[in-house]
Amino acid sequence: MTALHFISGLPRSGSTLLAALLRQNPRFQAGMSGPVAGLFDALIAQMSARNEFSVFLDDAKRERILRGLFESYYADCPADVVFDTSRAWCARMPALAQLFPEAKVIACVRELPWVIDSIERLVQRNVFSPSSMFDYSPGGTVYTRASAVAGQEGMVGAPYDALKQACYGAQRDRLLLVQYETLTTEPARVMNTLYEFIGEPTFEHDFGHVGYDVTEFDERAGTPGLHTVRGEVKAEPRETVLPPDLFNRFVNDAFWTDSNNVPEGLRVV
Known about the structure:
Mean pLDDT: 89
CATH superfamily: P-loop containing nucleotide triphosphate hydrolases
Distance between the termini: 29 Å
Helix content: 25-40%
Shape: globular
Keywords: Transferase
Protein name: Sulfotransferase
Number of strands: 8
Number of helices: 11
Low-confidence stretches: none
Strand content: 5-15%
Oligomer: single chain
GO molecular function: transferase activity
Pfam family, one: Sulfotransfer_3
Organism: Mycolicibacterium insubricum
């Protein structure tokens, strides 16, 4: 099988932009979050003691079956290097380390108020198309939506907890945190660091013309523009759409920006 790495981290933090840049390299395959992580978890569950036939499975067989999932899914992929994307991978670091000892995980992060702001902007931009993020419900307010996504089972809260687990866990040496703020202001530095981290020769990326679009998927999810990337990589300063008290609720959550909170061995760019 080709070389395998993973993209994970927080939503609305640049993972689609990063994948769009990686795709410029003809040796690489990357994209939006796919089905592999869900299949991975389903297989593990089905191979557990809840299945009466699990008596026929030992850990060696389980490992072969799980590796086979990746080999089968990417069997027709001609790329030399594959990046599989899912916010769940940060929570699966021990398993990934055992299955793929050479694999690295790139976690995209962003200051939490701006993650919440980005989600709310999508909701307010698509007022006639309720989103799957909120079970297609048109009701609620910015406060109820923020509380929902930031909860432990929410689309921000769950990946955030998984990120912290990965950052402070035993496998953090195979983890690289890519800050959205750095990716949009210094993309060349980010990409050079990433190439060095995964041990691949550098590639000259075109930061002025980046494109990625999965319109059909986004429209079906009720969130047009969720994964659209077009144009130049650049920071776009803006005012938040969050009320001040709600914005301030999340301002101290970006632990990776405080050197006192970054554990030894964890790389942040």
